[in-house]
């Protein structure tokens, strides 16, 4: 069986699911079921006393691995604080580091993310840094003890697909950690492409959350991730500049071709 | 009975003593099963919420899990 060994666990689903932006949290159980995801991300926020909402953890199957993110953090220090709170709240020791200071493109601050990764890995967290795909920083993340690296495909929530394809390919080639493409994947075909390239997993949120039928889209992503993974394992044929006949061209109609 | 000023989620708030963390949550209508409390920088276990009496200049962070990617 093709299990993904990651963060001290073994999982079979290579589709990680984000839980933001759903029209209602109550659809999340159906979405998780259809996606077959075993890893689910959540965020921490201050309670708004004027608008107390429901506890969203009630919608997440207890067998799922929770991966709290540090969204809202603008510095390593803030990310570390959020991670510690989430662990103390009983979320386990997985954490997605997300340090963002840019509000237009929501691109991660690799430097602060690396600092947070170093601190939290030393504290025994399984650290999943969300980063811009940069080989040198990815190596530093690995050396700092990251459990995986999570390069973005395109800006968060943009549904623009694998714009960073060539850089992600380099990380897959060079970094001996699972590479999880996180952010920007807008269609099942793009998830399949990431998996065909050899990504260990993909993290999808917006594309599923804003779909006309989120549970059906979750099912489509699940199939795409499996197909892409199987394609990768099967060994893709080489791309060539010219045609190479699939049927024999020499025939019996004339003596010479 | 006197009033003290504490900070809740970054906002200065006046409360009437004596009030425990648990009492404050009840007053605010927050169900205890769903939240995380940081009290003067430390995360406080649920069992201790009924014991801790809030005092002047205390800082409370009351957090919950929400959807996120």
Quick structural gist:
The complex is a heterodimer of chains A (257) and B (69). Chain A is of the alpha/beta class and 257 residues long. Chain A has helices spanning 28-35, 76-88, 110-122, 135-144, 165-174, 188-196, 206-209, 214-234; strands at residues 4-6, 9-11, 15-18, 39-46, 65-68, 94-97, 126-131, 150-151, 180-182, 201-204.
- Helix fraction bin of chain A: 25-40%
Strand order of the largest sheet of chain A: 5-4-3-10-9
- Classify the beta-strand content of chain A into a percent band: 15-25%
The number of distinct β-strands of chain B equals: 5
Mean pLDDT of chain A: 93
Number of helices of chain A: 8
**Mean pLDDT of chain B, rounded to whole units?**
88
Separation of the first and last Cα atoms of chain B: 46 Å
Helical content of chain B stands at: 10-25%
Low-confidence stretches of chain B: none
Profile the largest sheet of chain A: 5 strands, parallel
Rg result of chain A:
20 Å
What's the count of strands of chain A? 10
Helix- and strand-based class of chain B? mainly beta
Query: Which CATH architecture of chain A would you pick?
Result: Alpha-Beta Barrel
Q: Using the alpha-carbon principal axes, give the shape of chain B.
A: globular
N-to-C order of helices and strands of chain A? EEEHEEHEHEHEHEHEHH
- The number of helical segments of chain B is 1
User: Oligomerization state of this entry?
Assistant: heterodimer
Question: What is the terminal separation of chain A in angstroms?
Answer: 48 Å
């Amino acid at each position: 069986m093709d299990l993904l060994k990651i963060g001290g666990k073994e999982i079979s689903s290579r589709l990680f699911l984000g839980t933001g932006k759903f029209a209602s949290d109550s659809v999340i159980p159906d979405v998780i079921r259809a996606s077959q995801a075993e890893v689910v991300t959540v965020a921490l926020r201050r309670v708004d006393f004027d608008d107390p909402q429901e506890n969203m953890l009630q919608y997440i199957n207890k067998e799922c691995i929770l991966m709290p993110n540090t969204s809202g953090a603008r510095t390593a220090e803030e990310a570390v604080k959020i991670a510690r709170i989430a662990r103390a709240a009983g979320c386990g020791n997985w954490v997605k580091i997300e340090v963002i200071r840019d509000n237009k493109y929501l691109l991660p601050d690799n430097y602060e993310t690396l600092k947070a990764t170093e601190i939290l890995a030393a504290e025994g967290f399984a650290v999943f840094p969300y980063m811009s795909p940069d080989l040198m920083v990815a190596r530093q993340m690995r050396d700092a003890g990251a459990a995986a690296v999570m390069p973005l495909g395109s800006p968060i929530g943009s549904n623009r697909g694998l714009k960073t394809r060539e850089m992600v390919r380099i990380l897959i080639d060079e970094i001996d950690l699972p590479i999880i493409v996180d952010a920007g994947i807008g269609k099942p075909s793009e998830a399949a492409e990431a998996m065909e390239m050899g990504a260990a997993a993909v993290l999808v949120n917006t594309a599923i959350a804003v779909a006309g039928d989120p549970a059906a889209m979750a099912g489509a992503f699940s199939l795409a991730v499996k197909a892409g993974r199987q394609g990768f394992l099967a060994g893709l044929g080489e791309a060539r500049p010219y045609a190479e006949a699939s049927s024999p061209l020499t025939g019996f109609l004339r003596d010479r071709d | 009975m006197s009033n003290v000023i504490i900070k809740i989620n970054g906002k200065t708030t006046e409360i009437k003593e004596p009030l425990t963390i648990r009492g404050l949550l009840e007053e605010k209508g927050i169900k205890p099963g769903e939240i995380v409390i940081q009290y003067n920088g430390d995360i406080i276990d649920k069992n201790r919420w009924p014991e801790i009496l809030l005092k002047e200049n205390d800082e409370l962070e009351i957090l919950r899990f929400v959807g996120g990617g």
